[in-house]
């Protein structure tokens, strides 16, 4: 049986379709690598406290109480089954009696309950969960019932854990021995079990010891496959020549340094010297620059770009959004002054030009920008993904700067790397304001050298952060709007951030179920819903603007210009203002439905305030109940402004397999078992072995099994690129 064999012939259409539709699982390999995320023992109660709103969970618990009542707004009966793990309770709500087995849910009965965790009136519940009783032989498969350990799989609304387990069992029963990509000597050296044994043990363990041994093997395979791919990439990239850009004592870079109105931090100087040395080298620089929000990464990047311009080359700055691209272009021109307006009156003799290029530009503006780029008239080109399209030709691209690297995939970075002239490969500097723990950097950015800026420039003000729990203290939201008004009265400005725009969801608002069928999962507030409410209500005396990604480019730019010029008091926006937007007069930010954002994103957002001399304030508005993981995240953000500490916490709380995402070019995450936070030793050892293997066999010709491991990490096109003859 092949790893890529389709599941349909093995499981039948119904089961195969269910796996594909619910979990995007189509092949034997994908199913067998859909590992259990925990194991339950028969008779053991699963902890309810800590369940996260929105998760699809399987809970093992005991029924303590059953309530039934007639619904007021519709015909029928609502049944509420209260279950417990001995420490906390969870409600299971059924809006009809016509549920198979519902009448057997009585106090004292123990079972598995599966569904989506929601909140209703401040309490956690499962609406219409599926369930299986553990005291009825007809309800549970005999093998599952008698197993010492019961695997619990990541599930979905339409496909529960026990159904996944049944499909896995069917495949394992007919599966041949899985070939092992690791040589026996290497397995013995690392004390690893064979791959076939590990696959079977992770799904059908006989003991916890067997589970841990299987995990060790599967983690190693994941770590080695990723590190092999990265090592191949580093080897391939190092073989290309790069444009040498040595320092020029009387060039534009030196002139810019002389006119700087402030002193660089020690960290900025050190990183700048490292970058300067690498730009002067004959091989491409590939460096990640990470730093706190407001640590001055843009200045470091601009100084690097000017050194490339001094060498007669061009620099491209790639931003994730048009708003940020336009902001970067404006700020670069402002920082350069007469050094950035070549060809205009009053420009310096050695000036260059900053050209903005985005996808929504008018035809005439785009044509003008393209001519400036292809002619070399523009030394610095700023844009979105539009600048990596083949229709954009550079005269001599020497450096690519990628802002907010987590928004881009490896293919996009490689597309820019391939835009050099002749055989030359541009230098690459990628930046992120989302601090990255060392283990993540080793894996996600393993092809890059890493520099960090932890020191904030002088004059930056502290940012206070408070949680506004409106479910518990509704009056606090009114106080939040009062704080906004007070800051504006003091001459400052404010942001209000919403998770949604609103237009795409407008039609669904009339389709809400009756109140008694409300599972607590209301839609998060939208910009287009909140703006009129505030304009007519709490902020009616203030000048309010609206900004979101669906606005035309000229409207977005006009809105940001008006806010930056102080013509607007409050900007109600989506996360388009998350990065790069710099308005020093902004001192307060209100983030609505803050639990909808990740820790790093919240840290990024609040970095938009406190950028001037006045202190900043960030208010995190939430309906999440106290004690939930959502509130734990928000409380963590409120407790510290150290982005590096928050990055570690974010990694602990996230599903780590999602971290790679598309960053390794594959359509799926390569990490199912490996923990980037806890498995640093495995990652480090795997990197050492990978580098040694690739050094001896750059095409992995003598290691077909390992070559196959790499293709699991990367898509076919990227793998073919690495293995090209």
Folded structure, characterized:
The chain is α/β, with parallel strands linked by helices and 725 residues long. Among the domains are: 252-453, Rossmann fold, CATH 3.40.50.300; 463-640, P-loop containing nucleotide triphosphate hydrolases (Rossmann fold). The chain contains 24 helices and 21 strands. A seven-stranded parallel beta sheet has the order 11-12-10-13-14-9-15, sandwiched between helices. A six-stranded parallel beta sheet has the order 16-21-20-17-19-18, sandwiched between helices. Strands 2-3-4-6-5 form a five-stranded mixed β-barrel. The radius of gyration is 28 Å and the shape is globular. Residues 505-520 and 657-668 have low confidence and may be disordered.
Coarse morphology: globular
User: How are the strands of the largest sheet arranged?
Assistant: 11-12-10-13-14-9-15
CATH superfamily of the domain at 252-453: P-loop containing nucleotide triphosphate hydrolases
| Largest sheet, strands/sense/barrel | 7 strands, parallel
How many runs of DSSP E, i.e. beta strands?
21
Strand content: 15-25%
Briefly note the structural class of the backbone.
alpha/beta
